[in-house]
Recover the amino acids of this structure.
DNA sequence: GATGAAAGTTACTCAAG
DNA sequence: CTTGAGTAACTTTCATC
């Protein structure tokens, strides 16, 4: 995972359908060299899979919310994990602090969110939920390949 | 945006590099028909762009956190918006409730998160931050194309 | 690492039903 | 919408430097 690999990942994160010829000249490698590195990045698992960024509004899910879920105990957490079956749910994390789970959920409207929350409460063990409604999103992207300072280093010769 | 379109999006979200032949037989269309629909989905903006799902650990960012940021006022929000320059930052939302902004940030370790928070406090107007450290992630995916109930409907004839 | 080349596959478009 | 066909482009690998 050197600078070339990070440049390749950064380029493909922006547009995964770039040809190896274009990719190569963007990162300063020949097409075969770029291809070999992408292959290794896939085999190593650094690239999990290719996917699409979808416009939430166009698929009828303009309302985004983050829901914190508190439990009485951890016994029923298995059943609650099945909420990944809901296509409205995009993320499920367990978090440190005063809450148990943090769920990112995207619905058609407030009523659909209410129905989802009702499903949550059907699980015994769920004590309270606290929802944060998103008013507007300024940035939303996947994991970036570079870290702070990477670009400055890249500008140096050598 | 009919059932075919949602099936196409769902398939490409799982694997965007599928050939139109495979895509067609997965959704029940001929390759040219599948191709034409994908083209329209791009032109309509429903598909924003193709991207890669990256393994955060493999790129050196195993620590995920959600940070709520409170302001004194909205005057300096423009400057604070520049935090999208940080590759650690994946999402920036303004949320209703007792906080102003919600930031999803992924760093190498707790120290790197601390450095990022220090950058936030450099902005005048930032009053407090409240961070939720993610202990484990059970689900993390992009916006799904279907809504609850879609699959049941699809199983019906006609 | 670069180049050049080869074979196989796919993208993309169109005509016709 | 389907089938069938066609060209251009790309992927993928390999031999060579």
């Amino acid at each position: 995972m050197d600078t070339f690999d990070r440049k390749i990942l950064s380029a493909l994160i922006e547009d995964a359908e770039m040809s190896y010829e274009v990719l190569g000249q963007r990162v300063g490698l020949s097409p075969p060299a770029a291809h070999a590195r992408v292959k290794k990045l896939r085999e190593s698992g650094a690239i999990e899979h290719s996917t699409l960024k979808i416009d939430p509004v166009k698929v009828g899910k303009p309302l985004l919310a983050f829901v914190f879920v508190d439990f009485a105990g951890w016994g029923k957490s298995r059943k609650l994990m099945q909420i990944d079956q809901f296509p409205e749910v995009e993320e499920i994390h367990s978090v440190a602090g005063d809450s148990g789970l943090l769920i990112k959920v995207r619905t058609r409207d407030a009523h659909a969110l209410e129905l989802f929350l009702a499903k949550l409460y059907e699980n015994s063990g769920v004590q309270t939920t606290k929802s944060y409604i998103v008013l507007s999103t300024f940035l939303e992207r996947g994991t970036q390949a570079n870290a702070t300072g990477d670009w400055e280093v890249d500008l140096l010769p050598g």
